[in-house]
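User: Hi! I'm working on a homework problem where we have to compare a predicted structure to a textbook description. Could you give me the structure for the chain below?
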Amino acid sequence: MHERRGVLAEHRDVRDLLDRQAATWHLRQAWTPLTFTDDNPPLQDNPVAPARRSARAQAKASCQHDPAGRPYRSFRACWSTWPP
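Assistant: Happy to help. Predicted structure tokens:
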């Protein structure tokens, strides 16, 4: 029975990890307008090449505020204050 309990705990740990990864992915998608995340990243032919920002991402980074006047924040800054 002890071995079975260990397997169940390991299964739960893996499930929790996957749940956190899914939540992070969904939050990154939902918070894209609020963060410096590029809305439409340019497609790259070479996956090892350095990332390039699109013109829209450059504009978001340079003005630091969205059209409504709210400041853009990093994903980590949003994550650290969530849930409200």
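For your comparison, note the following. DSSP finds three helices and no strands in the chain. The mean pLDDT is 76. Good luck with the assignment!
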